[in-house]
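quick one
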Amino acid sequence: MLNISILGSTGSIGTQTLEIVDYYKDEINVVAITGNNNIDLLEEQIEKYNPKVCAVMNEDNYKLLKNRLNSKTKLLCGMEGLKEAASIDEADIVLTAISGMIGLEPTIEAIKNKKKIALANKETLVTGGSIIKKLANKYNVDILPVDSEHSAIFQCLQGYSYNDVKKILLTASGGPFFGKSTEYLENVSVDEALKHPNWSMGKKITVDSSTLMNKGLEMIEAYWLFDVTSRNIEVIIHPESIIHSAVEFKDTSIIAQMGLPDMKLPIQYALFYPERKENNLKSLNLFEIESLNFHKPDTSTFKCLDLAYKAISIGGTMPTVLNAANEIAVEKFLSKKIKFLDIGNYIETLMEQHSPFEVNSLEDILYVKKWTEKKFTELI
Ligand code: NDP
Ligand code: MG
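structure w/ NDP:
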């Protein structure tokens, strides 16, 4: 029996993970879940899965749920609650599917308690990559990627070492605004940005896909996961989202991983790695797809991708500024306080204002997050 703690069980990745739990119900047992606002769903999940603990980040929501609940599940609150859910004795694996860098601290806690990590929460590696890597080595913990591109790369690398790799081909759908001009993007609405052509995901990552920041964050995620320099990670727009990414080896052979766009496959692969298991997912029919297309990204229109390359090449605290500024900008765009193109502009300005330094601790990252929040308020 695989005992799993799901951080962010109410979200898009969290609920798809629970669909996998339902399918393999004799093999996976849920021991912890967490959420923030969606306490109705948390209540349903508690009733259905009977976890040992459930953590609610928001204190008011915690109190509301506490009043409603009549179960053996221990209810926890706030960051301390998330950390406890991430490090609970019973868990063999922690699936990190919280949205944003708020997921960093519980992930660190899980690693320190020697939990295997199934990592969906890319912002954790973007901001805390150096710390996470050191800790994972120290505690001998596997970090198994859930992000579809990184799962693809990880699958392509099975049987090879990082020394065999020439470059990583990181594919991107291009999002809803692929091929559009700056003039067009000037006045695009939130609803338009949320219409992703191939994937149904949480709002934050969907907006990130529309700005290409998602690919920028994923490039940094790949940098930390696969020991490659950012120069050896090439982003390729592939609108069909069938090739989930590929690896070119030093002999020029390229191995790609393909499948229909369905996050349940990479989630399942991470949970049962290295085992491949039969499932009820739809097979890819190449005759139905007919053709696969590839394009260079337009980084002058979609500046976020270049900003991510710049941030990782500068290193230190700069990727934290990139990420923290992006989280605030996306939230402000979603609440219609800033326009679509402002997202990249604000991130660029804050990166210019920041004097980066080496990341030595979690405190460094949290300090830079606060710095970014303060500077953002001054700008707006
Ligand atoms: P969602 O927005 O659908 O879900 C986010 C989850 O995090 C919810 O459970 C939510 O709780 C919780 N949450 C949000 N804010 C907080 C907070 N401040 N404190 C504690 N918990 C919080 O996101 P996704 O599932 O789409 O994405 C999750 C992560 O996985 C992201 O890092 C994303 O980049 C990554 N990812 C997602 C993919 C996808 O297909 N969705 C693909 C690849 C990576 P509640 O709902 O109760 O408020
Ligand atoms: Mg992805």
